[in-house]
Design goal:
By secondary structure, this protein is α+β, with helices and mostly antiparallel strands. The chain has 11 helices and 5 strands; from the N terminus they run αααβββααααββαααα.
Length: about 500
Amino acid sequence: MRKVMIKPRFHAVLWPAATVVLTGCMVGPKYHVPPATMQAPPATYKESTVQFKDTDGWKVAQPQDAMLRGKWWEIYNDPELNALEERLNINNQNIKQAFENFMEARTLIAQARAQLYPTLSTSPSYSRSRSSANLTHASTANTGQQTSLGTLGLDASWEPDLWGKVRNTIREQQYNAQLSAADLENEKLTEQASLASYFFEIRGQDALQKVLNDTVAADQKALELTRSRYETGVDDRISVVEAETTLASAQSTAINLGVARAQFEHAIAVLVGANASDFSVPVRAANATPPPVPVGVPTQLLERRPDIAAAERSMAAANAQIGIAYAAFYPNLTLSAEGGFESSTFKHLLDWPSRFWSIGPSINETIFDAGLRRAQVHQYEAVYNANLAGYRQTVLTAFQQVEDGLASVRILSQQIIKQQQAEQSARRFVELATARYETGVDPYINVVTAQTTLLSSQQALATLRIQEMTASVQLIEALGGGWDRSQLPSPADVSKKLTKAETAIQQ
């Protein structure tokens, strides 16, 4: 018998070829996180370096103060707000929808990974047929033939991932799942911030309601005074009419406040997953001052905003798409095999002579496509560049929102001080005007003017306090709440098999 020897140089070529078949290589550009901005971020926020003088107590937390973590709303130290936020995290339907989108994104990873493995299929069959008797000359007296055929086979096929198409697809889906996880966290932050803002709006409306109720009570006493003076002949009828008009106007304004409060209350009901008809927020007037907010430094913002993380992951996914498009330029190898048993009778179907099989590879390569594949590469390169621009725009917007939040809270805090002074002056104005009216020095119209001025000042002060509290919430939202990038699941985390609870159909 003649022996066949493999020469060393052929052996050196065979092993790399086998390695390529089994492991493949990756084509396409490698991904690196690009710079977030065209220039380096500043060392500090511009608005945080402004001197916070003449404020109502609000200030920027010191740099060494710990950043917000987890349940950021607890910084306001309001048990009622804490309870509502907990309900929101459990029952908010927008958050649940975002969570299911994340679960869907994770299933796409498993679908992509399945392409790495062979496909096995079987299609047992049985048929019985009879040929036509008229297929031959009538003289043969052919009455037709009956045949039976039973088949029990197994088909196997496998396309090795030679050029990384499948692996790039897996990576793309992993990055998309991470993007979906970041979107989920961003949705949570948005809903949580909306709830906090509506909650402080309601508290502000309650404070405004108290101002109006006190004004109505004061106007009622003023009307009784003018009527008494009119009935005793000290004053004229016009003073009574003016007092009645002032009272009715204050009562109308007080009633109108209920519209905004009801709308905010209904909005909170939707956020916590409750029926608006069965939900209410107890009335409690509050003139709170926002606590110091630790803002950190601009470079930390890139790690704290879930929308920035989502934008960055979109670039990674787009980069993987480029690799998938490049793989189309290379040939595809398919290994297929077929085998089983075939017989005209069930009795002999599983007999060894009834076996059949076939095996062989095939290669598929596109020779001419009129530039289709090149155009697809250019398409995904454009998608990547667009995502890069979107990423940098998201970063710029984040810096803007933080600066806006810092400026808003600082300026509103300073404005409140001046408005408090205006309110105190208006209150003194009412006292003086009332005293001069009661002594007969001035007509009642001066009292009306003073009362209107006081009410306007009180309403403005209450509105400013609402704006200050909601501005602090917006600042915290701009900073990313209590989230940071370390909480983003890794590619290995999102690739884990879903549990039964995660895949169960909700009722």
